[in-house]
Amino acid sequence: MLLLNSKFVTLFLIFSLFSFKKPEKHPLHISTTEVNFNAKDKTLEISCRIFSDDFESILAKLYKQKTDLVNPALKNQMDVLVKKYLTSHLQIKANGKLVNMSYIGFEIDHEATNIYLEVEKISNVKSIDVSSSILYDLFDDQMSIVHIVKGNTRKSGKILYPDKTFSANF
Predict the structure, then answer these.
(1) Is the peptide bond before 72 cis (omega within 30 degrees of 0)?
(2) Longest C-alpha distance within the chain, in Å?
């Protein structure tokens, strides 16, 4: 029991030493995209999750204006930028045909920004292709995790820079 307690104390001390350092930016450059086929509503529900600091950096760099995703006074202005960025860096094909995504909005969840899009009038899905270049214009080690869900079937993969596409067949 004494050995277990001494290991715990050692780990606690090591953790404490590192916690006093200035926080560094996260070392991973990753985003997540999920495409969910809603058979009842005949829609594709799309959500993207991106680290907010990286997302604000690319929006400021590309659109040359102040970005602050958490400031309620700038919400409408940020909606315009988020929509513009996502619709130019994310494309979805359903059954081999490019679909038109409608921007729903975004929300902040701790250190991440969740963005929501939707595609209507999709009666059935046999295949989905996701083409993503999210944050490619900022990082050359960017990774996109993609999840495609149809009913109880979930297909997942990763897209590593410079590749852009993940496909799933059902």
Answers:
(1) no
(2) 65
Mind listing the pLDDT tens digit for each residue in 67-121?
Answer: 999 999 999 999 999 999 999 999 999 999 999 999 999 999 989 999 999 999 9
Q: Is the dihedral of CA 127, 89, 138, 68 positive or negative?
A: negative
Rg (CA), the chain: 20
Give tens-digit pLDDT for 27-52.
789 999 999 999 999 999 999 999 99
Classify strands 30-38 and 143-150 as parallel, antiparallel or unpaired.
parallel
Instruction: Report the distance separating Cα 115 and Cα 130, nearest Å.
Output: 16
Whole-model pTM: value is 0.83
| Residue labelled with tokens 């496909």 | 167
Q: Are 81 and 105 in contact (CB under 8 A)?
A: no
Distance of CA 66 to the CA centre of its chain: 21
Rounded CA-CA distance 152/40 in Å is 14
